[in-house]
Amino acid sequence: MKNKNFKFLTYFLLLFISLSLVTACSDDDSSEGTEQNDDDNNDDENEEEEIPVINFSSENLIFNDTEVGNSSLKNLVISGEYLTNEISLITSGDFLLSIDNENFSEEIILTPDEANNSITIKVKFTPSEFGEVSNTISVTSADFEEKTINLNGEGITVVSTIETFNSTRVAFGGGYNQTATETFNLPENPETVSNIKMFVKLRCPDVGCDEWDVYANVRVKDDASGEFFEMARYITPYWNDNSQLPRGFEFDVTDFKSLLTGSTELQIKTECWNDRGYLISVEFDYEYGEPDYPYYSIERVMAYNNSSIDGVPYGVSHNLDLDKSVTIPSNAQSTHLRTIISGWGHATPYDTGGRPCAEWCFRTHHININGTQTFEHYMGPMGCAQNPVSNQAPGNWAPDRAGWCPGMEVPTRIDVFSQNMAGSTFTYEYDYEDWVNDGANGDAYYATSTFVVVKSTTEISKPTVND
Asked: In CATH, what number does 53-156 get?
């Protein structure tokens, strides 16, 4: 009995010791696993915290409208974390980059420390031409995939306004003349000018305006020939001025930019036949930007336009020369004709509707080049009743004339040669539509001026015009 009890105790003790050893081993393994998991979790957290990150204050920079040749700036703030490699920023065209706002270039390099501590990049926009401009900044580094910043701006034209005649009185009698001539200093370097707009403002003197619609124009002196070239023509309103137009009549006179430079003689004329007349102001807007061609030259082809009745007689025989020979310079890259024409007189026979010539009769005239009808000028209705200069009562201003209206600009007719005319000589003829004046109601006239304009990327001489 004693032996059995002893064996049982011995067996129980051995079992207890075995279980204790197993439990201890399990605890050790579990502890080691826990420590390993903690280490793994710490490694994961460290890896997440050290992923390189770069941020931008904006991914789209939109610049203010900027005059061509001038500049505007925008700030681009860059901030990063855990960056370890250099960052390259590259742009091009009308945009440049700088760190110090003094030295600008198309590319800059940032150190990791600069980017990690946040840095402001100056982005400069200097438009070289007018219109919308788009580009990008490419941001690259070994730390991240390429990033793109969009850049957008618009170049606007630089405009310089030049005042010339200022409330100059033109009239007939009372110590006044129908014509005034003065010399003005106009901007230099016409090759940088993209457009020239001319504005003619009429105001009534204290005694009131001329009661009639009369022929009027603005001319510029060509120093080479001594002639005054007609830049623009208009018809005055009945009884009133053109103050309904904020800046008066508007004309594009860019074709004359080779003459509208430096010391320049200008002339204004109105065919007023009383001492009321008008107070006339003329100003020019010189627009600077990318011109179609930097160099222009212009020559008179024919000019029968000293007054409304010094034009070409219509419907009768005359001895005025309407045929010319024109030679174009060899470096001309663009050639066109510039014509102003308006009809006067109430000659008969009447057209349908009781329209006498040449103020009221609708006609189609042609320019023949080398004997072929090439360009067409339709002298038709222009919607006189819709003229914004509408305060012309009791004048007969609303009915349609043939190609002009009282209180309105006379159209400038531009005819561009589609083929290259460089170095060529061609014949020119102004061919008025056939019609015969019966002599029963006076004469008819077409005041007509035509100029030939050439353009080039290199300095260019005037065309040659021979009778």
From this structure: 2.60.40.10
Global confidence as pTM:
0.75
Residues 6+ apart with CB under 8 A from 211: 238, 239, 274, 276, 395
Give the separation between CA 60 and CA 62, rounded to whole angstroms. Answer: 6
Q: Which residues are known to be catalytic? A: 213, 271, 359
- The residue type of 457 is T
What would be the CATH architecture of the domain defined by 158-291?
Sandwich (2.60)
pLDDT tens, position by position, for the chain (467 residues)? 444 444 544 455 454 555 554 444 445 554 444 445 555 555 555 555 689 999 999 999 999 999 887 899 999 999 999 999 999 999 999 999 999 999 999 999 999 999 998 999 999 999 988 889 999 999 999 999 999 999 999 998 889 999 999 999 999 999 999 999 999 999 999 999 999 999 999 999 999 999 999 999 999 999 999 999 999 999 999 999 999 999 999 999 999 999 999 999 999 999 999 999 999 999 999 998 889 999 999 999 999 999 999 999 999 999 999 999 999 999 999 999 999 999 999 999 999 999 999 999 999 999 999 999 999 999 999 999 999 999 999 999 999 999 999 999 999 999 999 999 999 999 999 999 999 999 999 999 999 999 999 999 999 999 999 99
* Residue whose structure tokens are 């008179």: 300
Asked if domains 53-156 and 158-291 share a fold, the reply is no
> Any idea where the domains of the chain sit in the sequence?
53-156, 158-291, 292-467
Q: Which CATH architecture has domain 292-467?
A: Sandwich (2.60)
Q: Strand 144-156 vs strand 60-62: parallel, antiparallel, or unpaired? A: parallel
